[in-house]
Amino acid sequence: MNEEYLNRARKKVKDVRLFINGVAKRARQLANGSKRLVPTTPEDERSNLDIALLEVAEGKIIICSADEN
């Protein structure tokens, strides 16, 4: 796991449980073939978890509770 992505993404979501569940859900979506929302190349060896963290860090994915919608 890329620590820089983790630290940047963590600043976007205050609730730790919500953060963990949201990032894990997005990583599963990527593993199941969802389109990446950040630029990548075929040679890109970043894990789905790293991609999910980067998407959150860059504001491509917003993680919030149902109450915040």
Topology:
Elements: H1 3-10, H2 16-31, H3 48-57
Helix pairs in contact: 1-3, 2-3
Stretches where pLDDT is under 50 for at least 5 consecutive residues are none
Terminal CA distance reads 29 Å
Secondary-structure arrangement, i.e. CATH architecture:
Alpha-Beta Complex
Helical percentage: 40-55%
How would you characterize the largest beta sheet?
none
Structure overview:
The protein is mainly alpha-helical. It has one domain: Eukaryotic RPB6 RNA polymerase subunit, CATH 3.90.940. Helix content is 49%, strand content 0%. The chain contains 3 helices and no strands. Helix 1 packs parallel to helix 3 and helix 2 crosses helix 3. The longest helix is centred in the middle third of the chain and has 16 residues. The chain is globular. The chain starts with a helix and ends in a 12-residue tail after the last helix. The mean pLDDT is 94.
Give the tags.
69 residues, mainly alpha, Eukaryotic RPB6 RNA polymerase subunit, globular
Quick gist of this model?
The chain contains 3 helices and no strands. By secondary structure, it is mostly helical.
